[in-house]
Amino acid sequence: MSQDPALMTLTEVARAIAMKQVSSHEVTRALLHRIAQWQPHLNAFVSIESEAALKAAESADAALAKGEVRGPLHGVPLAHKDMYYDAGHIVTCGSLIRRDFVATTTSTALQTLKDAGQVRLGTLHLAEFAYGPTGHNSHYGPVRNPWNVAHITGGSSSGSGSSVAARLTYAALGSDTGGSIRMPAHFCGVTGLKTTVGRVSRAGAMPLSQSLDTVGPLARTAEDCALLLALMAGPDPEDATASHEPVADYIAATKGSLKGLKIGVPASYYVDDLDAEVARVLEETIAVLKREGADIVKVELRDQRQLSAACQLVLAVEAAAFHKRWLIERPQDYGPQVLMRLQNGLAIPAVTYLEAMRWRGPALAAHNAATAGVDAVIAPASPIPAPTIAESDVGAGPNAGALLQRLTLFTRPVNYLGLPSLTVPSGFTEGGLPVGMQFIGRSFDEATLLTIGAAFQRATDYHDKVPKLPS
């Protein structure tokens, strides 16, 4: 092929392998070449399993030559966030505590991708125990943004965002509890889908918050996210919280038009105190949506600050409950920021937690009433572009804490409500940093979000931009 196979989308490369236009071995070798070039600059991978990946690719090619097709991802090399259990493999969860933990089971989401024929490239870095918004990790170092390695990737799916942006993997599983898919998508210039709570099984995925955790993909395009969601969505006997809601035809949804869709622009909060370049990209995105036939209207949402605070409270308590034994037995093995956040969770009274949980239903009902007339709501994924690694470190000074809080202002309310949200690359700052917009949908209506995202990407080329290898 004339095109570097590493630069293809997930959908394109899966089709090319199936049609024998390129082999799995060629594709895997191309990605491993890029990984060797980029990894020293990015620190995106925990493990790179070159030999095993090439052997698996050869096996996939041999099977295809015999007419044996394993599934829609036959021979496609992928790497995922190192918190998805894979039997027989070490899963560090970005921590010292699980540095040598060998999984005895495989997560349901990961197993569906393996059953579909993926080739395992290795595993991707993350914030310690998926509990951090920047991409810092005090044990293994920060993951770096391929658009500018001095800047953060966003967390906690830091390796996923960085590696997809640099074209080191075609897609990657992330997780989103307070914004951990959407922030890396925004800061790294890729597409990220936070699913409805219960849409994808969480069995075998490292838990952080039982009420907020969601599994979802990061990829180059909405079409790629649809392909992965179609494989993963649905009930699971291993996860009683996985929903039996009907699974839509997500791939077909990406062929739809914006004509006739009504998209709401919040009158406040999500448009307040924006960085000037984020505000510009929001206006430019709205202009594209209008040009493509969408009807843009204002929506009045209830106080999102309360939703954001409630999300933080629920997350703090549930994370602390999961980590309680290790907090007693191994506090020295946590990084200082994660340890502090977990200890704070232990101090929150049960009554306060229960009040936050009890308010969740009425808050969702109020949101649904406020957005009843629209198909989705548009908002920036974060009010600012990616800050530098230095200025967002907790030891950077008195302003670092406020900066960290600001990063997730626009993601946490969505997690609290349990709603789906798709973040797409929507522009760049003058300094060359990506900016992403998120589309917030109705419960279990990922299909409409994928329609909007795919239509926007047919009208723009931000998702096609590729960062340059640092010199």
Structure, briefly:
The chain is an alpha/beta fold and 471 residues long. It is built from 16 helices and eleven strands.
Explain what this protein looks like in three dimensions:
The protein is α/β, with parallel strands linked by helices. The chain has one domain: Amidase signature (AS) domain (Amidase signature (AS) enzymes), CATH 3.90.1300. Helix 10 crosses helix 12. The two termini are 27 Å apart. The model has no long low-confidence stretch (mean pLDDT 97).
Q: What is the strand arrangement across the widest sheet?
A: 4-6-5-10-11-9-7-8
Give the overall silhouette: globular
- Which regions contain 5 or more consecutive residues with pLDDT less than 50? none
Mean pLDDT over the residues: 97
State Rg. 21 Å
- Could you estimate the helical fraction of the residues in percent? 25-40%
Characterize the biggest β-sheet. Answer: 8 strands, mixed
Quaternary structure: single chain
Strand content: 5-15%
Distance between the termini: 27 Å
CATH superfamily: Amidase signature (AS) domain
The number of domains is 1
CATH topology: Amidase signature (AS) enzymes
H and E order: HHEHEHEHEHEEHHEHEHHHHEHHEEH
List the total number of helices. Answer: 16
What is the number of beta strands? 11
**CATH class category name:** Alpha Beta
The CATH architecture designation is Alpha-Beta Complex
Specify the structural class: alpha/beta
